[in-house]
Amino acid sequence: MPVVLVANPKGGVGKSTLATNIAGYFASRGHAVMLGDIDRQRSARLWLGLRTPAAREIRTWEASDDGTVVRPPRGTTHAVIDTPAGLHGSRFKEVVALADKVLVPLQPSIFDIYATREFIDKLLSHRRSDKTRIGVVGMRVDGRTLAAERLREFVGGLGVPVLGELRDTQNYVQLAARGLTLFDIAPGRVQRDLEQWEPIRQWLDA
User: Fold this and answer.
1) For residues 141 and 15, what is the distance between their CA atoms, to the nearest angstrom?
2) Where are the beta strands (DSSP E) in the chain?
3) Hey, how many other C-beta atoms are within 10 angstroms of the C-beta on 167?
4) Which of 164, 186, 165 is nearest to 175 (CA)?
5) Alpha helix (H) residue ranges in 127-190
């Protein structure tokens, strides 16, 4: 069962947005998807509670009261884990050990960039093997700005790929309010955003 971990030590970088849309993508491909949530804010669980029964099923993968990740039910084929800010210590090691792929959402802010540098180094040293793939996704990026250039320069020296840059758009906000993703609605309504997701989808499927 492939497990995708979405993690960054900084809050407010778009972890839940990325995690829910990855789960929505897997569900759109007909997979039996679990969306795990070890963030105390339980953003992913809240999102699932908003999801209409007419949408493709995404089941929850709860953590126990002490924060330990529990095993998903039988039949699950794909899992996505949303994580809290400040992930560290034994919980960090536990979830990284579970992951086949780790996605690090990163905003083009100098503060976010420096907060993320050490975290990526930790990921590279704690992943369970070289087969655990790590990638970065730029969040709320305007590709025409100097901040976006700095983001590309930063990740260019990390030894991990930048899989894509997602623009700042109300599409994510409005869909999240209904428990939906880009992959739950008519493609023509979010065509520009789906185009930005194409390299991320290819990486997830590889």
Assistant:
1) 15
2) 3-6, 33-37, 58-62, 78-82, 101-106, 133-139, 162-166
3) 15
4) 186
5) 146-156, 170-176
DSSP 3-state assignment of 113?
helix
Q: CA neighbours within 13 Å on the CB side: how many for 161?
A: 11
Answer for the pair 171, 188: CB distance below 8 angstroms, yes or no: no
Q: What is the DSSP string of 63-102?
A: B-TTSPBPPPPTT--EEEEE--TT--HHHHHHHHHH-SEE
pLDDT tens for each residue of 68-112: 555 676 789 999 998 887 777 777 888 888 889 999 998 887 777
Tokens of 50: 């908003």
Chain centre distance of CA 203:
13
